[in-house]
Amino acid sequence: MTSPHNMPDADLQQLDFSRYAEQERRERRRSMWTALGFMSPAIILVSFFLLYPVAYNVYISFTRWRRFTGFDEWGGLSQYQRLLGNPNFSEAMANTIIWVGVSLVLPVAIGLFIAVMLRGQKMEETAKSIFFLPRVLAPTAAGVMWFYVYAPDGVLNSILSFFTAEPVTIGWLYNESTVTPSIIVAYLWQTVGLAMVLLLLGLAAVPKDPLEAASVEGATRWQIFRHVTLPLLLPTILVVVILSVLAGFTVFDHIWVMARDFPGKRTLSLTVYMYVEAFDRSSWAYASAIAVVLGVIVLSVTWLQVILQDRIDRMTK
Amino acid sequence: MAVDLTTLDYGVIARDEARRNRENRGVFVLMMVLSIVWLAPFYYLIVSVLKSPAEYVASHPLALPSGIMPLFANVTDAWVEARMGFGVLNSLLYGVVGAGVAVFIAIMAAHGLARYRFSGRTFWFMLIFAGTIFPFQMYLIPLFFTYLELGLLDTRIGMILFYTAICIPFPVLVMRNYLTQMSSEMDEAARMDGCSEFRLFFSIILPNCKGPFIALFLLQFTWIWNDLIFSTVLTQRVEVRSVMSTLQVFQGAYADVSQTVVMAASLLASLPTILLFFVLRRHFMQGLQVSSG
Hints:
The complex is a heterodimer of chains A (317) and B (293). Chain A folds into two domains: 9-60; 78-316, Orthogonal Bundle (MetI-like fold), CATH 1.10.3720.10. In chain A, 74% of the residues lie in helices and 3% in strands. Chain A has helices spanning 10-60, 78-85, 87-118, 124-132, 139-149, 155-164, 179-204, 208-216, 221-250, 253-258, 270-280, 284-316; strands at 63-66, 70-74. Chain A is flat and about 95 Å long. Chain B has two domains: 5-72, no CATH class; 81-253, Orthogonal Bundle (MetI-like fold). In chain B, α3 (70-80) packs across α14, α4 runs parallel beside α8 (169-181) and α4 packs across α11. Chain B starts with 9 loop residues before the first helix and ends with a helix. The interface between A and B is large, with 89 and 88 residues.
């Protein structure tokens, strides 16, 4: 072995190395500027139209709005204190939690049911298309259609009166007790297809051997599902659950279109509450605080997903 | 003989078989009923647009129409009277330009992120990706005031700029993975021959991204077309409104307008996505896979 100290031309070599390092650094700097050149349109647009508004929204939520001075007056946490003391906020929050609860359980349950039923059936492809079809209607267009289904002289009442043999005129979208369930049904009609397709994709990845083995051993459908399919499907179910929860917290179009005539519509969800407080009542700072609360919730759910995903990945390895 | 067939209990096998058949028949009937329930709203939508306003009022909402001619009158009324024409053309413009430019910019950014080695890559990626994690409600008020100040409120260019920006982060995520997996042999060869970085991107990288470009374009076009909330907040004039807010305003503004015309308007508003679904079903399902992964 020769160490650099023993070599006659050690200095020269050191010089060479540093030149290489210098060249390498220059290369990296150059490729950084080239890369930044390619990324700059994306960085500029995203920063200006998406990130700056989010930061500005957080700032506004700590101010008080005045007609002529705008958002100059610092309000500290006063908007958040108003939120906590306002029964409308609690009601909007409660309704949103109902939405999330329903969109957490039902799309997954119905989607899983349909997906497991369809697995391996001849009509799988056809049925997949049928259940996914509502998804291709725009949420707004679907809401408009369901609005007429629920109208006092609409389709639903006419079907009901066929069974009761007397005219039924329930205002499904005008009653405190029926408005949310009615919108949820329309919402599920549109969203279950997506849950089903995702679950079927997950099922397609489940290996066939254990299923056949269980079937040969005489296990019932339920036993096979409970002990073989379900554990293998867990990662897909997690994705579907998280997507449904995030969609449930941020659902807006369906409620906005269908509950347009409902007098108490602003407490139907946090998203609608925020919109009405801002754009109908000009409580800008207060509405910003609602948006921040929504943002904190959505970020927490996303964060939870990352953690659970990580745990499941480690479990399956 | 290795297997003694006589010991197999044929009775058990037959009973098993019968049970399975019964179960399958049950599943079949259940799925038929569910499918009919699922398709009923579509049936209602279709028979409604085929009736004239007078016929709609006179008949049962689910009764079959007497002909198909009223369809044309309904669609014309929707296009002209409901001003759906403006909405459809505006949304086409927003969707094609917004999604097209956004996916192109995203591929450029992904190229920078995936195919150059430099420090701070993760930071820039996270910066762009942060654009997808916040709920839309956090954008609305600041955008409204910023647009008001800059004179972008209620303008087509303002709509296109915002739609472009919000459609960038997700394609960046997808394309970064795609371009990281693509071999870099061609780049090296091209650089050896003195190809500039600019030409390298346009002549080698971009032509290799055709497939994902189309899939991502369709996904983002559909998103822009279906958007209601941003168009409601950022536009007021009917000449600038997107198709969804035109539909929503039309349904809300004239309570006594004929339902057949509103139904025709909703059908018109959904036509591009329905066509897209039937023509490109395979692409759609792939897009789903991409967005769930």
